[in-house]
Amino acid sequence: MNSEESKIAMKTSIVSIVGNLMLSVFKLIAGLIANSGAMISDAVHSASDVFSTLIVIIGVKISSKEADEDHPYGHERFEPIAAGLLSMVLAVVGFEIGMSGVKTLIAGHYDELAVPGVLAIVAAAVSIVAKEAMYRYTRINADRIGSTALKADAWHHRSDALSSVGALIGIIFARAGWPVMDSVASVVICVFILKAAIDIYRESLDRLVDKSADEKVMNEIRDEILQVDGVVDVDDLKTRLFGNKMYVDVEIVADGALTLTQSHEIAEAVHMRIETRFPETKHCMVHVNPDE
Q1: Torsion of CA 111, 112, 113, 114, to 10 degrees
Q2: What angle do CA 118, 124, 126 make, to 5 degrees?
Q3: C-alpha angle with apex 135: 93 to 122, nearest 5 degrees?
Q4: Can you name the residues that pair with 238 across neighbouring β-strands?
Q5: Which of 5, 23, 84, 93 could form a disulfide with 204 if both were Cys (CB 3.0 to 4.6 A apart)?
Q6: What sign results for the dihedral spanned by CA atoms 149, 16, 125, 97?
Q7: Is the pLDDT of residue 281 over 80?
Q8: For the stretch 48-76, what's the b/e string if a residue is b when 16 or more beta carbons lie within 10 angstroms of its beta carbon?
Q9: What is the DSSP letter of 117?
């Protein structure tokens, strides 16, 4: 991640921290005043996002460091490591929220449960709008710079918006005469959060084990290579994800009668075209095979 991408990630993370702090305080106060367990759980979820964003900042800082003697290929893989840590934090938060709801359901005495006030409905509605806006803002910047950790943070916002939807439904049911639904909503929130945690963990793992780029990107790379003058065919094409970057290894076919210098010029043209058309490419290795 270059300095410009790092600045974008830092700015986005700061916006996330400020937004989550304000929102979590608002939801906590609303939950306490309105007697809503679901809203208090939702406030805890928003507060946990602040810690998660701090992990993103650390991951981005380390991954943007230049290559050194100990890490000659760079530090990009520290970013998916940060994303993996985020998924674990999210899973723990989701489990705690779910357990609080389950304990209430098992305990029974539903008639004694407090009915959430109107303020809880207002807080849930505000949270849905705010967190969805934060998700879109963070996701746009994550896609812009190809940041896995920032994308994971964006999904924290989206999962929070979904959990607020669950809280809103539970509160409405509770006010309609089914107070137990507030606790049921906490369990539903848990499911959403755990699903997001699993998805984030799987994607971060893919970027640590040299997973190939998706088929669409592979086809686009192949098409670009075949447009280079002197390339007869593509014998082999491999890609591997490296943090928020990608390595490309390709074997092209060229006229066997060409000189070494001419073959090198074709390989160089392929190399430059791939790195230009696919800026997420960290390095491209081109091997030339003679046309039989």
Answers
A1: 110
A2: 105
A3: 75
A4: 249
A5: 84
A6: positive
A7: yes
A8: bbbebbebbbbbbbbbbeeeeeeeeebbb
A9: -
